[in-house]
Amino acid sequence: MIVHITDQPINHVPCDGIILHLFAEKRPPRGTAGAVDWLLNGFLSRYLQEERIRGKENEIVLLPTRNRLDAQKILIFGLGRPNAFNVADFKAVWQKAGQTLLNLNLFQLVIAIPILSAKYPHPEGSTLASAMIGGLLEGIKKSGGDTKLFQVYLTDFSELKTKQIKNTFREQIAALPGIQAIGF
User: Fold this and answer.
1) What pTM did the predictor assign?
2) Residue 73's pLDDT band (boundaries 50, 70, 90)?
3) Cα–Cα distance between 75 and 139 in angstroms, integer?
4) Mean pLDDT computed over every residue of the chain
5) Nearest C-alpha neighbor of 133 from the set 89, 174, 184
6) What is the pLDDT of residues 142-183, one digit of tens each?
7) Which one, of 179, 133, 125, lies nearest residue 157 by Cα?
8) What pLDDT is stored for residue 103 in this prediction?
9) Do the beta carbons of residue 12 and residue 159 sit within 8 Å?
10) Is the per-residue pLDDT at 120 higher than 50?
């Protein structure tokens, strides 16, 4: 698997699919999800308001990009309640994501790093990195897929609040077996 870190806007990264995370709470999407919502003229906000998307744990929603983005599909993975967010559940989300992406034949991906702030209890960057990319690798392998087929672009890197967390995040991803890290 090739993993890139990019500061490019989500609509300028070549990909098959965009992966977003949402917590289960009623609010307009923020970060990359908010940018995608804006590019889709409030489509995600309407789905949230109509409760077609809830952000509940284990929720997976597949949406079209309505020809407004280079990607063909948007996948939204629910993270559950913000106060219950933990590394084990996050890794399970990514294991399931690996299986789902393989089934949908989505191999070139943009993954938005979940918004982490004081409002959301969150793990250290290293644990988050291992859970996310490690879980994705495990899910792909478990489904019989070849991880070498996947190319991942990580966006919203600015959401990792400190330089130390950013550096640890980079180091942990680069240290995972089967990863070719670019832009680290």
Assistant:
1) 0.84
2) very high
3) 16
4) 83
5) 174
6) 999 999 999 998 876 555 556 666 677 778 788 888 888 887
7) 125
8) 92
9) no
10) no
Closest CA to 138 of 91, 85, 72, 86: 91
| DSSP secondary structure code for residue 144 in this structure | T
- Cα gap 85→150, rounded to integer Å: 27
| Per-residue exposure over 89-102, b if at least 16 CB sit within 10 Å of its own CB, e if not | ebbbbbbbbbbbbb
Choose among 55, 74, 52: nearest CA to 63: 74
In this structure, what token pair is assigned to residue 17?
């699919």
> Which residues contact residue 12 at a Cβ distance below 8 angstroms, ignoring those fewer than 6 apart?
70
Q: Which DSSP state fits 7?
A: -
Task: Kindly state the tokens that stand for 179.
Answer: 């990863």
Rounded CA separation 127/53 (Å): 27
Domains and CATH numbers, the chain: 2-182 (3.40.220.10)
Residue 22 in tokens: 């949402």
The one-letter code for the residue type at 75 is L
